[in-house]
Amino acid sequence: MYEGVVQDLIDELGRLPGVGPKSAQRIAFHLLQAEPTDVRRLADVLMEVKAKVRFCSVCFNVSEDEQCRICRDPRRDRAVLCVVEEYKDVVAIERTREFRGRYHVLGGAISPIDGIGPDQLRIKELMPRLNDGVVLEVVLATDPNLEGEATATYLTRLLRPMGLQVTRLASGLPVGGDLEYADEVTLGRAFAGRRAAE
Amino acid sequence: MYEGVVQDLIDELGRLPGVGPKSAQRIAFHLLQAEPTDVRRLADVLMEVKAKVRFCSVCFNVSEDEQCRICRDPRRDRAVLCVVEEYKDVVAIERTREFRGRYHVLGGAISPIDGIGPDQLRIKELMPRLNDGVVLEVVLATDPNLEGEATATYLTRLLRPMGLQVTRLASGLPVGGDLEYADEVTLGRAFAGRRAAE
């Protein structure tokens, strides 16, 4: 219905996650009226990301170099390795400033329905990192959902026989939330994991 | 928090309408993992749109040529001119296949709060199109909201003294909707505009 290249743009935008046909149209019209330099900046950064960004050869975090900032940082504790599903989980954990160890990005979680088993994740790349006796604790920081739990269970069974300390993030009430609005599983976990009051 | 160019991409995506920080992050991560050819196609079409698309010199519709497809089409009725706010309104009306005349795209609607008066719209470009005696009817198809109504009222006062037939799109109940859910203004308009049953 639209003039050729405008329709092409709407189609391409509609392929992005969370962008439906209406949003794609809205963004396209915005770009049609935007300054050419603004549109060029977006196009340039798209190409730049694909040219520059690769995955850290050690932990598979996103990186602009062969090794990511965290793996290159000598102040990071090499005794603790935090296993996450995705790059965005690294960023979320870094934001807390609670963790000073290093990471390993699996690239997803075990999900048989989606055809993702242990072989599709970067588990074979994880194992050599644990064999040198430097890593003492592995923190499994997968998502607290079905796939994340399955992945954590799988890794626990794999790593514990290696004599490593394997830990998981605490489950419980989110800080700042209302107890009455917590779902029953979360509230149940919060009870099971209750600690002595300080 | 993110590696340089990834943050640049998130920033650029966050500038698009309807894309908040979370969506921008989600789209950026999708693009990080996407095939380079897919990302290049998006970047290319962005540049192509800015290079190729301009506005029709007659009606200010979006066009890849000096005149848009509709203005170039000799089968379109030159006696009827439909005035709309934006390019997307042209597309919406074309989709109905009810209108065989031509268009004039104002580029917005009168909105004093946003600093948009008649001089900011393409009204001075509309006038010469009405002076040659070819156009007999002007259909004011502005949005049925405050700004659209103000624009239509302004244009009616301007055009009627020129001896032109000036019409507006009918207001009333949307087809397929439930009468009980219609807002009172729409229902009031539907009553005021009632017609003899066929």
Automatic annotation (TrEMBL), chains A, B:
<dbReference type="InterPro" id="IPR015967">
    <property type="entry name" value="Rcmb_RecR_Znf"/>
</dbReference>
<feature type="domain" description="Toprim">
    <location>
        <begin position="79"/>
        <end position="174"/>
    </location>
</feature>
<dbReference type="Pfam" id="PF13662">
    <property type="entry name" value="Toprim_4"/>
</dbReference>
<protein>
    <recommendedName>
        <fullName>Recombination protein RecR</fullName>
    </recommendedName>
</protein>
<dbReference type="GO" id="GO:0006281">
    <property type="term" value="P:DNA repair"/>
</dbReference>
<keyword id="KW-0479">Metal-binding</keyword>
<keyword id="KW-0863">Zinc-finger</keyword>
<comment type="similarity">
    <text>Belongs to the RecR family.</text>
</comment>
<dbReference type="Pfam" id="PF21175">
    <property type="entry name" value="RecR_C"/>
</dbReference>
<keyword id="KW-0227">DNA damage</keyword>
<dbReference type="InterPro" id="IPR000093">
    <property type="entry name" value="DNA_Rcmb_RecR"/>
</dbReference>
<comment type="function">
    <text>May play a role in DNA repair. It seems to be involved in an RecBC-independent recombinational process of DNA repair. It may act with RecF and RecO.</text>
</comment>
<dbReference type="Pfam" id="PF02132">
    <property type="entry name" value="RecR_ZnF"/>
</dbReference>
<dbReference type="InterPro" id="IPR023627">
    <property type="entry name" value="Rcmb_RecR"/>
</dbReference>
<keyword id="KW-0234">DNA repair</keyword>
<dbReference type="Pfam" id="PF21176">
    <property type="entry name" value="RecR_HhH"/>
</dbReference>
<dbReference type="GO" id="GO:0008270">
    <property type="term" value="F:zinc ion binding"/>
</dbReference>
<dbReference type="GO" id="GO:0003677">
    <property type="term" value="F:DNA binding"/>
</dbReference>
<keyword id="KW-0233">DNA recombination</keyword>
<feature type="zinc finger region" description="C4-type">
    <location>
        <begin position="56"/>
        <end position="71"/>
    </location>
</feature>
<dbReference type="InterPro" id="IPR006171">
    <property type="entry name" value="TOPRIM_dom"/>
</dbReference>
<dbReference type="GO" id="GO:0006310">
    <property type="term" value="P:DNA recombination"/>
</dbReference>
<dbReference type="InterPro" id="IPR034137">
    <property type="entry name" value="TOPRIM_RecR"/>
</dbReference>
<keyword id="KW-0862">Zinc</keyword>
